[in-house]
Amino acid sequence: MLQELLAFLLDGLHEDLNRVKHKPYKKSKDADGRPDEEVADEYWASHIARNDSIIVDVCQVRIIMIIQACLHQIFIFLGLG
Questions:
Q1: Which end of the chain is more exposed for a tag (fewer CB within 10 A), N or C?
Q2: Is 77 helix (H, G, I), strand (E, B) or coil?
Q3: How confident is the model over 60-77, as a mean pLDDT?
């Protein structure tokens, strides 16, 4: 219940603070064997073209940092890093 309330509030703040006034539509291309990093970069650029607010800056960058930290810990645990 609390997560849903926070998601609702953050989404509302994001929409109000979004710096993008005209949201361009760009059809996503299939990966078609391209490297994951290339596909991810393309998707992120498309996402930012439509969603650019302080909420995206703070929250989504924080999520990326958490994922990187978790992967680092996994590599250490497995003896890969």
A1: N
A2: helix
A3: 67
Domain boundaries, the chain: 35-81
The answer to whether the beta carbons of residues 13 and 55 sit under 8 Å apart is yes
Per-residue 3-state assignment (H helix, E strand, C coil) for 6-71: HHHHHHHHHHHHCCCCCCCCCCCCCCCCCCHHHHHHHHHHHHHHHCCCHHHHHHHHHHHHHHHHHH
Place of tokens 């703070």: 58
Tokens of 39: 């596909």
